[in-house]
Amino acid sequence: MIDYDDVWIVIPVYNEGAVISDVVKHTRETFPNIVCVDDGSRDDSAARIAETGAHLVRHPVNLGQGAALQTGIAYALAQPGMRYLVTFDADGQHRVEDAETMLAVARSGEADVVLGSRFLEQNEQIPLLKRIVLRTVVVLSPTARKLKLSDAHNGLRVLSREAAARLRITMNGMAHASEIVGFLASSGLKVREVPVTILYTDYSRSKGQSLINGVNILFDLSVRQRGA
């Protein structure tokens, strides 16, 4: 069995009480070190996380997924022996086996950052509207094109300690994903995509983004960059 003591899983959580306990318990069967950042949830997410044995950090108010990820990254970096960090969604869409495959790529030295992609292999499970959103983001994002990414908004990522320490997420909402891609494009870090399978359940579909929200993400990021 592979030793994952040097890996920390970061899960941002907002009103995921219906599924978060099962997601964390299943993930902990492989990865012992998990920190969940409860981002001001109004349901019982924090209580459900506390039952799993995972580390729990709480935002008193909802700050957005970007802020939750940055809090989780800072927490993981403070843990002794941490060498790799995995960002993992709370809604049950991500597969543990995909995270293991991506970690193997990072450990081999092929990449400092490994990104999951829904489009490197044929995947008929992706809902049509979701496919349009994701393709639109890639087409309209200069940094995604620079990195030759096929999937700029996949929440499953593996970062080396160096990459995680250099990353600073300042966009608190969903636009953080584009901000991360922008950072990677100018970082000089080795980036590789790996095919992954996303589990689209009725629950996760109900929390998906519309096409207009995907375009708004790029708009928010472009405004931020022009004001920098």
Structural description of this entry:
There is one protein chain. The chain is an alpha/beta fold. It is built from ten helices and seven strands. The protein has helices spanning 20-28, 45-50, 65-77, 96-107, 128-140, 142-146, 161-166, 176-187, 202-205, 211-227; strands at residues 7-13, 34-39, 55-59, 84-87, 113-117, 157-160, 191-195. The protein has a seven-stranded mixed sheet, sandwiched between helices. Strand 2 (34-39), helix 2 and strand 3 (55-59) form a beta-alpha-beta unit.
Write the layout of secondary structure elements.
Elements: E1 7-13, H1 20-28, E2 34-39, H2 45-50, E3 55-59, H3 65-77, E4 84-87, H4 96-107, E5 113-117, H5 128-140, H6 142-146, E6 157-160, H7 161-166, H8 176-187, E7 191-195, H9 202-205, H10 211-227
Parallel strand pairs: 1-2, 1-4, 2-3, 5-7
Antiparallel strand pairs: 4-6, 5-6
Q: Give the end-to-end Cα distance, rounded to a whole number of Å.
A: 47 Å
User: Which structural class matches the secondary elements?
Assistant: alpha/beta
**Quick one: overall form?**
globular
Instruction: Please give the largest β-sheet.
Output: 7 strands, mixed
**Order of helices and strands, N to C?**
EHEHEHEHEHHEHHEHH
| Computed CA radius of gyration, to the nearest angstrom | 16 Å
Helix content: 40-55%
Number of helices: 10
Portion of residues in beta strands equals 15-25%
Oligomer class = single chain
* Counted beta strands: 7
What is the arithmetic mean of pLDDT?
Answer: 86
In what order do the strands lie side by side in the largest sheet? 3-2-1-4-6-5-7
Stretches where pLDDT is under 50 for at least 5 consecutive residues are: none
